[in-house]
Amino acid sequence: MKSFDYTINDPVGIHIRTITPLVKKIKEFPGHEFTISKGDSTVSLLRSSSVLRMAIRQGDTVTVRVTGDNEDAAAAAVEEFFKENL
Length: 86
Description:
Histidine-containing Protein, Chain: A; 4 strands; 37% helix; alpha+beta; 27% strand
């Protein structure tokens, strides 16, 4: 398992305009599992509606976990997405 913490910088937080391309990025890594945690809540990053219900806002710190055969590359790609878009 590979993980990283990230503090959301986007003034709106995680919203529909960012979750859609994030899911597209994740789908580039079939066979991997991606989860996001905020506080005691953890959901799959592929479940857009569940992620949106977490109400992740600017200033919130989340933990993203990746498991799979090439988790280093998958985690790096998703972390880069977060840095560029969130």
